[in-house]
Design brief:
The complex is a heterotrimer of chains A (868), B (131) and C (323). Chain A is mainly alpha-helical and 868 residues long. Chain A is built from 26 helices and three strands. In chain A, helix 3 runs antiparallel to helix 4. The radius of gyration of chain B is 20 Å and the shape is elongated. Helix content of chain C is 41%, strand content 20%. In chain C, the strands form three sheets. Chain C has a five-stranded mixed sheet. Chain C has a five-stranded mixed sheet with strand order 4-10-9-6-7. In chain C, strands 11-12 form a two-stranded antiparallel sheet. In chain C, helix 2 packs antiparallel against helix 3, helix 5 crosses helix 9 and helix 7 crosses helix 9. Chain C is elongated. About 3% of the residues of chain C have low confidence. The chains are: A mainly alpha (868), B mainly alpha (131), C alpha+beta (323). Chains in contact: A-B, A-C, B-C. The interface between A and B is large, with 52 and 52 residues.
Amino acid sequence: MTQDIALGPSSKNPDEHPSSTPVPVGDRPHTISPDEDLNERLEKIWADPPGFYGWFKALQNDALGGRIMSTAFTFFLIGGVTALLMRMQLIRPENTFLSPQRYNELFTMHGSTMMYLFAVPMLEGFAIFLLPFILGNREMPFPRLGQFSFFTFILGGILFYSSFIFGAVPDAGWFAYVPLSGPEYSPGLPLDFWLLGLGVAEIAAIAAGAEITIAILRMRAPGMSLVRMPVIAWAYLITAVAILFAFTTLLIASLLLELDRKMGTQFFNPAAGGSAILWQHLFWIFGHPEVYIQFIPATGMISMIVPVFARHRLVGYSYVVIALLATGFLSFALWVHHMFTAGLPQITMSFFSVASIMIGVPAGIQIFAWVTTIFFGRPVWTTSFYFVVGFLVTFILGGISGIMVGVVPFNWQVHDSYFVVAHFHYVLIGGVTFPIFAALYYWMPLFTGRLLNERLGKWNFWLFFIGFHVTFFPMHIVGLLGMPRRVYTYQEQIGWDIYNQISTVGSFILAIGVLLFVINVFYSRQRGEKVDSNPWQADSLEWATSIPAPNYGFSELPIVRSRHPLWDQKDVRDGEAPLKRMLQALSGWPLTWRAALTTSALEARPTEIFRVSGPSIWPVVTAVGLIVIFAAEIFTFRILVFSGVIGVIVGLVGWHWPDHIETTERELEFEREHNILVYPNGSPTISRWSMGIIVLLVATCTAIFVFSYFYISLQHTVWPLAGIERPGLLLPAIGTAAVLATAAAMYWANRRITKGDVVGMRIGLALALILGAVAVGTLIYDLRQVNFDHTINAYGSLYWTLTIFLIALLLGGMAQILFTQIWSWFGRYSAREHVAVDIGGFYWYAMILFWLALAGTVYLAPYTILSS
Amino acid sequence: MTQTTPRREPHSRRLWFMFLSGPVIYSVYFLVVYSLGEFGCFSGLQFVGLFGWSIIRVGVAALTVVAALVTFGVGFASFRSWRRTRQESKEHDEENSQFMLFVATGLNGLFTVITLLTSVPMLLGSYCQWI
Amino acid sequence: MLAIALLLAGCGDAAYAPSTLSPQGFGAARIADLWWFLLALGGAVFIAVMVYLAIALFRPRKPGDNAKNQRNGSRVILFAGIIAPAIILFVVFGFTVSTLNAISTPSISREFTIHVVAQQWWWEVRYPYQQIETANEIHIPAGEPVRFLLSSEDVIHSFWVPELQGKLDMVPGKTHELWLQADQPGVYIGQCAEFCGIQHAKMRFIIVAEPPEEFERWVAEQRQPASEPSESLALRGQQVFLSSTCINCHAVAGTNATGDLGPDLTHLASRRTLAAATIANNRGNLGGWIADPQHIKPGAFMPPTPLTGPELQALLAYLATLK
């Protein structure tokens, strides 16, 4: 790394200290205090507890991020082995290396592993590790949620793979189309392992998504306004929001299918009024964004790495942000392009075809931004950069074949053929795995303090690159020659042999490439070149701290005045004087609790200093409880399911039990002195945002339920089915009034506590609890008096499921009120700190909308749908 | 407490609106138009006429015009604000608002084009048919 | 490279592949045209971007000024990254819509419908107007569009004859319509394209396109009930057949074998293949298939039939009469 950097100050950004030279290598990072004693005290507050028990309680972002990444990479290796076995089977026609059953199991496991257990968790692991450093803050907003996410992910993955032990390996593909995956055609446990094992992993993904969203919006370094945010932060923001929508949809879809399998509902059973196509819609509403959930952060990584090794600022930053946003939104308008052969109306397909083709525009923007940056820069040929170039070549091919399969008539020919297999491996390996390798070579020093070996790295790259193209390029051709996907064998004399043989050879070259990477990791952990700061002369804040990254991140938080702070700012601590004074004071105080900073969303002005929660065993208890529920449900062992529910409840209560710190004069003094709010009992901003995300998740569930209801009902000319009476309207009218009154009571309780009136608040909460119970009562009474059950047909299934979901929403809100009431007797709330009441009210205002949507659908829709 | 709430950025609400209007309006438009196509074809709406065109076509056309006009309008407004801020801030660092207005212009423009394209298949002869 | 490989694959081919690139009907032909257009366009785009990338990576360097680079670079992105792709993609979309329109409205000369019902893992074929029932082998008159009504008895399958037309899923509870035409007489391989369970790989069929008069002859033959065997061996075989478990699943018109879980065997001997176009229909294969179907198609629903050697020989003789 000796090339000098021809950067030149960005002309529009004349910093107080314009500088074309980066932070010199080896220089002590500014953000680490020279005061060793202070650093030690910070380390003591932020470090995870030691020992075996401490390992479970650990919640530091670096520890969790590292664990999630290594677990995900292990799943990647396992998924790779399944692929090699399949390639062995296909090396010649009519091969008997694998039985058809085994082959079907392997491609199911391969797809599911790579999609659910490798790519998404890997990228989330990166986010959890890197984001606090890149954003210049000390932690993620919910360390315990990260901890929960790790344990649900790894336990879910283990549960999924334990299907091998029970000889019940899922065999219906990673997409699990009904009716094949339904109770009739897949009896027994395999599909339950698929639905429930992966269900846990999906919950892990949603948890991480929530955390990433809030971190990027509200926990950036002071001064990192949107325009100065590194591209990777934009990418992760868009991805995280997409995760919230997409994975929630999948979770609901899985729930409906599991109900069909275990409870006898009829959502997907055409014989009882259900719809087989509905599953495809729900699955792909998740499944297509899923691809972009992997691709968008990968491009974010590329946008970080390209400028560093091109030694030039990213050209067209604003265009890249436009591209990322457009991609994120368009990715939700593509799902039907997986269903072009499902017999939908042409007009529907054409709408989706437009979006599928036009997503080429944002892709074009990004590609030209990267290549143009390289054009103006001076490439430094590190292994990481090799992988970037490999990504560009491969992904462009995959993008072009992607436009092709977005063309409806052409899609009719190649859909479910090897052409599509080739296409999405070009996109997912080319567009996601190449960037992940580039990122691993790039950020490894931050993780371990040592560089990966470059010589091994180059071998790694070339074998991976050549192996990849040898494996997957011939698949385009064999697909055009008519070879369908997911076949365990093919005929002699059909002309597909040679292409399959080439692919198999290529897959082993590729595997050797991956093996070299694993060797490189282990080798470099022992012998790798040690670095202590910014080995690549990079521009972003994660390189502003010491290496390997300390637990507290930065002793003194940086102030961002440029998009490339380490290139433009001589000292990243410099800035407006009051701000600098505040951050300096913050480095030496408080030294008894973990303090982090929230900042405003647009301009990143500091808004609050708050306490990040510390190590706890309860998130693990919750995760284990959850896994017990799901594992026991696979075997329909309901007593154990029930005890799992108890475990989750106990875990959640323990997790959120407020460990109260009295706000002392010291905090108030800091507030006055530095003009910033100090909350030693958690940030109200973050609490509100997290409630916002919960509401968003519930809204997504509601929308999916309503969509399913109308999708099924509009297929019928008579609704309700089978002569069932239309529902009565008196009870729902009472319920509506009760819900409105509950929200009003919550509003009143919040008003009282804002004025410091604790008694008034308690009365309001009690009223809300009673009124909520009335609303629940109307629904339960209604279910008791209807003369059909959920198994009778799709109408009954929808009626019961939507109503029970609504009851669950109401009960959730009531539980929150109940705990707020209990904690209020511990004297937790005051005019200053009462965020629990505040967000409880927010939930109930949103509840009005959920109620109207769900109860409106259940009770009113049968009146509006034409009966002819 | 000397300070109750942090200072709000100038016009931040308007900025956010312009920033997100293109994709959000497109998403809503897309969902409605998709539902009209899919559910309309399910329930035989293509046989219900209005002004000599089926109700599906009329609906898609009307929604397209409205959505495209709104996105284009917001895009144009963002563009003008962007030009103004750019002239004002020639001397400084690229301002946040300037950046957001630029992104807003790009997104609204892009989604106007996509919205218009989305309506093209409506001209298909047999739009409710498959293959 | 791709083009060369494809040309090689398309031409001198000892093995016969059901290639989408050697279209034999109007649907596949239009789609193949679309493919060559997309390939040419995509290839040109790929080469152009690769040339730019190569220049970017290997050009001699001069120190540049960031602000100027940003300005020029933005222009590159605007023209090469937004406007050019938008125009190209607009053209692609235009071609999409016109092809879609062309394929979906065939010129119909006469109403002719075939109903195909997919089941795990074979195809039941019915000609409602001709009152014919057969399996896994679909005869059509060459040179005219044929209307297929596709449905499924159990899970989702997909009907795909690469040389003739794009695929269409067969969804339980729904009936989908597909138009298909074979320009020339010939035998075309079809297969299930949607994963449908353990034997998805061996769920194939053939389409036999014949000149109209030959097709009419085939129809006339298929309308006949099974002829009574005259030979003694075949007669014994008929008894074996009617007293075995075969009749639980299979039907032979004119006998009391009326099972409907498996393919109709009334004209079994006239078919070219067995086990959903998995093996050729000859005496040896048929014997092997009856004795141990699980060896040929593990997981298929047909159980092995325990017969002595002479019984099997008699049965085969009988089945050979079902022309």
